[in-house]
Amino acid sequence: MLVFTIRRIIQAIPVIFGVSILVFLMMHLVPGDPAQVIAGEAASQQTIDQIRERLGLNDPIPMQYLQFVTNAIQGDIGTSIRTGQPVADEVFSRFWVTLELTVYSMILSTFIGLIAGIISAVRHYTVTDVVVMIIALFGLSMPNFWLGLMLIQFFSINLGIFPVSGWGTPEQIVLPVIALGTAGAAIIARMTRSSMLEVIGQDYIRTARAKGVKERIVIYKHALKNAMIPVVTVIGLEFGTLLTGAVLTETVFSINGLGRFVVESITARDFPAVQGSVLVIALIFILVNLLVDLSYRFLNKRIDLN
């Protein structure tokens, strides 16, 4: 397992470089001049040129990227053009809020998705199965920003139960987590149902039932454990989806997280802030995928990771 982990970390290095190159080039292709944004609309061309020189924006693009990579390897992901603060401080001060939102949403998605998928699989081709899958289809079809707006309208404005915006108190957490986690729950439910149906049809499940093993033990001990590998894969992918999907959710609920910071930085053409934020998100996504791969071994001892 140690050899597998080291190999995956080495394989992640070119992925990180690829992400950094892609984001770097995309930010330079976006119309607009960050020096103009900083100086203001009424600034003279001389002032704008001085700002561009100070920020190193007059250097050739390959030279700018090389400088960014060199500093990033040393732990310096730049200074925000917009705020003048180190990007690392700006990112990590907001990162924990986004991580909390993502983790809470992932827990909700997994809990609801597993229960709904198991119920649907056990009662397959019944009214219950159809109803659960229809609800899952609706959950999958609703954009999280639209669902967030509907939740605000109904529970905050009409009923006054939950606050409209913010993050920190239990009341402020409920609506953003539901808005972000609903689509993930639908995907996990559909995958759990599909995987469970495949396992339930296996000979060893029929043998366990023929021996008189209780149905609850057959489902949760034998069937679910062997059906979890594809489900865990989806959960890992959904974590990355939720992490990036938090951008819209944080904007809708005015949460001061990393996603909102990225949106504001893109608007201000803040190259270092966007590059540093995306780099951190990519690292987290790679780490989660590594943990998912390692979990296969615990779910099935016969899987050889090496």
From TrEMBL:
Q: Does the keyword Cell inner membrane apply?
A: no
Alphabetically sorted, this entry's keywords are:
Cell membrane, Membrane, Transmembrane, Transmembrane helix, Transport
Q: Which Gene Ontology CC terms are recorded?
A: plasma membrane
Q: Which residues cross the membrane?
A: 12-30, 101-122, 134-161, 173-192, 227-253, 273-292
UniProt entry tagged with the keyword ATP-binding? no
Q: Where in the cell is it found?
A: Cell membrane
Query: What does the record say about its membrane topology?
Result: Multi-pass membrane protein
What are the GO BP annotations of this UniProt entry? transmembrane transport
Q: Which Pfam families match?
A: BPD_transp_1, BPD_transp_1_N
Query: Which parts of the sequence belong to the ABC transmembrane type-1 domain?
Result: 95-292
Name of the protein in its database record: Peptide/nickel transport system permease protein
Native organism: Salibacterium halotolerans
